[in-house]
Known about the structure:
43% helix, Four Helix Bundle (Hemerythrin (Met), subunit A), 468 residues, 3 domains, 18 strands, five-stranded parallel beta sheet
Amino acid sequence: MLKLYNTLTRKKDAFKPLKKDLVSLYTCGPTVYWYQHIGNLRTYIFSDILKRVLIYNGFKVRQVMNITDVGHLTSDADIGEDKMVKALRRERLSLTKTSMLKLAKKYTDIFKKDLEKLNIIEPDVWCKATEHINEMIELVKRIEKNNYTYKTKVGLIFDTSKFKNYTKLGRLKLKELKKGARTKIDVERKNPSDFALWITNQPKHIMRWPSPWGKGFPGWHLECSAMSMKYLGETIDIHTGGEDHIPVHHTNEIAQSEAATGKKFVKYWLHSRWLLFKGEKMAKSKAAIYTISELEKKGYNALDYRYFCLTAHYRTQLEFSYKNLDAAKNAYEKLKNKIIEIKENLEIKDPRMDKILKYKKEFLNIINDDLDMPKALAFFWQTIKTDELQNNEKYALLLKFDKIFGLNLDEAKRKKIKISGKIKKLLKEREEARKKKNFKQADKIREQIKKQGYAIEDTAKGPEIKKF
């Protein structure tokens, strides 16, 4: 039985989808005003693992991911510039709709390329905020009709005091919220937690649309509710995101969605924890962030980073350093070499299904316990090392398990080693000595080659040379 830690209940809940064989999954996508750093990408690796585990369990998954290209202001307090406009200024582009959409496409394309490098399965539906304004306006109309709104100089505001269970996801203590931020900027705001559904007080904003509340643009939280409802229905199975979305963004999504429909919005809320750098959350607001492209320039593969993320449970913080990434890179290289060795030495024997089923069952139990990747990875290595299995059984199991890890182990190949003419000459001399059964001379040459940093492995196909 698959069990997932539900932020809503604060416990591992048995997973039962709304429909028998189809899981509706909404993943909070990026605001495409800049590169997505590796801290952001850890969250998408987590949601990919979740999707893979669901598929492994026999479910069909319909996944939707949004692209935020308007409405995400520099502060959750509904103040400041739109992050997309700020990006235009940063890149010295004209403050026009055309430039804004072009910039959004640039960073969306880079983000999608990073997902491809990380072997993350694409969502079934990509949806841009700017292409779903009508759906957002219709949703706000429903919220307004149910008397959850009021107007201020900022725009149309959601009254959180009218929503009974506003604090349930984040276990918020509203009385402790500071009466700064929103209420200082908008003195008409009734409660510190109230948030904007439609913003009308920025007449110079590049992206504005006509609406019943005036010309303006949607609040950031609105898009996820409107688009998840359009593509997945008014109640969905799973919503994922980073832990920083819990107290504001996801809390507000629940409030506005359930205020509109009167139905439960999401059954299972899953959140990944932060990637840390020197003990602090990796974030764009800090100078020390890294992108996949930057890691590649330093000689790492994107899948080295994916392996690194597998070494920690998604509900634990993970400390990034090049030392830790090097350890993951080395482990991943060792893993690929083990897979290659097993593949090159497959027995011509019938697989023993009882043995295979035993290992499959154990692996399934591990991953179904809230996606426990560190334990699953340990079991993977155990499967490699065991004497209980034949190589043909191991190979079939390991490729099956890699459907979860997504490390492309079926593509593992030996790296071609460039060797000097001197080493080639020694190899030839050693082979001639072996043919003459002069093993003493052959061993002497092996030692000479070893001193040059190479090891020789004699196989059925002939000698193979490896770099230390």
